[in-house]
Amino acid sequence: MQIATWNINGLRARMDFIKLFLEEREPDVIGLQELKMEDGKFPHEPFEALGYEAVTHGQKSWNGVAILSRLPIELIEAGLPGQEDFGSRLIRARVGEGEFALDFTTLYCPNGKSTDHDDFPRKLAWFDSLRKWAGGFVRSDTSAVLCGDFNIVPTGLDSWNEDDFGGFIFHTDEERARMAALIDVGLSDLYREREPDTQAFSWWDYRGGSFHRKRGLRIDFLLGSKAVVERLRSVEIDRDFRKKKEGMTASDHAPVIAHLDAG
DNA sequence: ATGTCCACTAGGAGTGGA
Fold first, then answer.
1. CATH number of the domain that A68 lies in?
2. Which of A92, A98, A103, A210 could cross-link to A205 by cystine, CB 3.0-4.6 Å?
């Protein structure tokens, strides 16, 4: 089974790119973030033509998340309880059947903007709610995945410039404590399970040629319960899909993909 | 180089967000 997460920065603008990704990489399930689209406008037909069913939690202009699956999928819930007024940022579904079914959540965490902005304490509170919510169902003996754009750089290794950015937004002790507390409910960062010492990024600013100058951050994660880690075969950050392709502009994020045993 | 891109409102180019 192949699972993936990708912040696509606008579904409308990224349709051709996403279809190419589905055709080339063939993930069984993928969490998408930053749809920037209302649910009523979501283009189900082109995804169905490729064999994918979608569940969506969108809104006009900003945010928005969806799960695409070519395995049977059933919506569990949409929206983080108590944080609905911070935008459409979370959706959870049961994917697949039998012993290999996944409890699959994808999320788009608040950016926070800067440490002196009102959104920063709201971001921290959002993570407090997320931890409480995840703690309610994550268990070691069932396969649960939380994936998406977390907008936190968990360690200095995950930043191209920790020396200058340490303490600034995405790089603060407060954010890192929230990320650690979330992991502590019984999750593992699947990329780090396989690559404990490798510096790799999942996001590069559009500005300043950041991608080619290798100035990125690792802020997109696949988190898995112990049962998922036991099924984990490999993880990759697909930098190829951060590159501009013929007639198509890339998202500023790369997809993250994992192979799990069975299914 | 504060150097890009997206969606929105408009019916063209500026604004807000990331």
1. 3.60.10.10
2. A210
